[in-house]
Design goal:
The protein is of the alpha/beta class. The chain has one domain: Rossmann fold (3-Layer(aba) Sandwich). Helix content is 42%, strand content 14%. Strands 3-2-1-4-5-6-7 form a seven-stranded parallel beta sheet, sandwiched between helices. Helix 5 links the parallel strand 5 and strand 6. Helix 1 crosses helix 7 and helix 3 packs parallel to helix 4. The protein is globular. It starts with 6 loop residues before the first strand and ends in a 16-residue tail after the last strand. It binds NADP nicotinamide-adenine-dinucleotide phosphate. NADP nicotinamide-adenine-dinucleotide phosphate binds next to helix 1.
Length: 260
């Protein structure tokens, strides 16, 4: 069991990539504090994984609140005995060009995507120093290939990526590794549609034309990369920015991907 007994906090665990990450980590033997605001979803996830080798403990927290971030860490210490890895997955997006995006929506994106990484990592620092632990932050390939009308989210994820590299430098002497995973386009609730609706958009070829592989990625693909980074395989990797994107950042724009 590659992650047996590893104690991992995953934020953004109530849906999408975070929930997929909790599933994979628990199946591989890790004990996971699953964190988000929608408690009923977290409880359902814990119930679903009740027979997994790793334990899943649901915990309600708003990652934009310092008090909640500290309570999250206290809950991890209480329930799991400490923290070996922190996965900062919580994120949100409001789309719109600069003359249409309200200031509070821009600030909210910075709080949810960027401030959350600062607050949760800072709160977990003593535990991570004790365990010589790992932080994985969720960036995005939109930083390399910005789509129209999403500059605010691009800015927020650019900050996450840069912060990951800066923190890798600052925390390396403590034995703490910090890396950034940049997913490509993965069907989820992030863009305000249901996961099924998002998946259906791939059927039109709309997203597929922009990536090299013709398979639609899913949460499991991203979770595999996270599991590798938090495990022994990632022992010498820090400050890395890793694309998990089916080749999205290669820059294709194929108008008829089904024909090729
Ligand atoms: N899907 C993609 O194509 C894609 C691509 C690149 C990067 N990403 C990044 O991957 C991460 C996961 O996204 P996803 O696609 O899985 O989207 P999602 O299904 O919408 O998940 C977002 C998660 O973040 C949580 N969250 C949002 N605000 C929060 C807050 N203030 N406090 C605590 N939790 C909060 C949500 O839970 P609650 O609402 O229950 O709090 C939810 O669990 C995000 O950082 C996203 O930016 C996704």
């Amino acid at each position: 069991m590659p992650l047996a007994g590893r104690r991992i906090v995953v934020t953004g665990a109530s849906s999408g990539l975070g929930a997929g990450t909790v599933r994979l980590l628990a199946v591989r033997g890790a004990h996971v504090l699953a964190v988000a605001r929608r408690e009923e979803r977290l409880r359902a996830l814990a119930d679903e994984l009740a027979d997994a080798p790793g334990r899943v403990v649901p915990f309600r927290a708003d990652v934009t609140s310092d008090a909640d971030a500290r309570a999250m860490v206290a809950a991890a210490v209480d329930a799991l005995g400490g923290i070996d890895a922190l996965v900062n997955d919580a994120g949100a997006e409001t789309q719109g060009p600069i003359d249409a995006l309200p200031q509070d929506a821009f600030e909210a994106m910075l709080r949810t995507n960027v401030l959350s990484v600062f607050l949760c990592t800072r709160a977990a620092l003593d535990e991570l120093r004790r365990s010589r632990g790992v932080v994985v932050n969720l960036g995005s390939t939109v930083v390399a290939r910005p789509p129209r009308g999403r500059f605010g989210y691009v800015a927020a994820k650019g900050a996450v990526e840069a912060m990951s590299r800066g923190l890798a430098v600052d925390l390396g002497r403590d034995g703490i590794r910090v890396n950034c995973i940049r997913p490509g386009i993965v069907p989820s609730e992030l863009r305000g549609l249901t996961e099924a609706e998002e998946r259906a958009r791939f059927e039109t070829g709309m997203h597929l034309g922009r990536q090299a592989l013709s398979e639609v990625g899913d949460a499991r693909d991203v979770a595999e990369a996270i599991a590798w980074l938090v495990g022994d395989g990632g022992r010498w990797i820090t400050g890395a920015v890793i694309d998990v994107d089916g080749g999205f950042t290669l820059g294709l724009s194929d108008p008829n991907p089904r024909a090729s």
